[in-house]
Amino acid sequence: MTEILTSHAGSLPRTPELIAANAARPVGPDGLAPVITDEFRDVLAQSVQDVVARQKQIGISIPNDGEYGHAMSSAYNYGTWWSYIFDRVSGLEVTGVDHRTQESACSAPGDVRLTSFADRRDWVRFADAYGDPESGVSLGKQNVFPAATGPIGFSDLGHALIEQDIDNLRAALSASGYEQGFLNSLSPGSASRIQDDHYGDVDAFLDAWVDVMRPEYQAIADAGLVIQVDDPSLAENFDQITPEPSVEDYLAFTAKRVDALNRALAGIPEEQVRLHLCWGSWHGPHTTDFAFRDLAATVLEVNAKYLSFEAANARHEHEWTIWKDIALPEGRVLVPGIVSHSTNVVEHPELVAQRIERFASIVGPENVIAATDCGLGGRIHPDIAWAKLETLVEGAALASSRL
């Protein structure tokens, strides 16, 4: 029997105790990074122990710390995967200007530019639904983000926080009997989407983020852990370009971000790298998502053994068939989403097994790890999130018995 391993995309539900402990922290003088108190440090360490132990109890093969080091002060937050880095980078400042609502230059053939978040094409098309609090369409809590007002760098606090994440996860892995786990980290391309008020050049700003993120990647790798680089921008940027660009122009734009990530990962073994991409975690129509068939070859250029992507939600489940035509490079492993964060319906184990078997029939069961579309924490109710992980493991066992 070939065992199908299980994992997930990273974020898991925070406990009320951890949320309260984070909310109680005083904010530092820069207005961004809350002070790390001894009390919070103790609560965080115990919470990581508990969340890893719960993954072990359920039967998750490859765990992480639930992204608990990416602090949340409310039960629902779609953006912590991104905003956590603000605490770890110098040169950022909350200016009081909400750049998401400012007018942005339109793109033109050969000149692809991101527009403001508010001008996303899916959001504009379904503005009435997005603006109706009873529609079920949700963007999550929208915060005012900082801007780069000076040279950016990975700060002393950033080094302390990633070491804290590493120490907490390694201790929890040991306590639960795991040999390996992963930590999530942001990509240069996704990070560079914040407002630049200093560099004045898109490529120069992207290059600066390469240097910023590399110390975090290196620290995780040096600790013997797997890095999951979260880079939704590779697919999600397409919706944030107006008017819609050609496939060729978008891929050229995306190739720069792939190159930036590879430069940041230079020297780190591919076996220690997972790439996660998605089309954004918000609960909406997603009618302007870029086709995975057109993107797959470009993202496979990332120096990562594992490729994590959405494959369970209603907009992207059909795309499993692309792997019939796209050869998976030797040594690579697919980590498709088999259960989704975008619905409260808990998938049946038989459906889970069928979804796994589709991929296994094409690339081989040894090249498939069953996971989630995106992070479950902060996006659906905790009870539902854990039930989805339980059915993921049940379905993987069923698929394993049939493979």
Automatic annotation (TrEMBL):
Gene3D superfamilies for this protein: 3.20.20.210
Alphabetized Pfam families for the sequence: Meth_synt_2
Span of domain Cobalamin-independent methionine synthase MetE C-terminal/archaeal: 203-396
InterPro entries per the UniProt record, alphabetical: Met_Synth_C/arc, UROD/MetE-like_sf
SUPFAM superfamilies recorded: UROD/MetE-like
Protein name: Cobalamin-independent methionine synthase II family protein
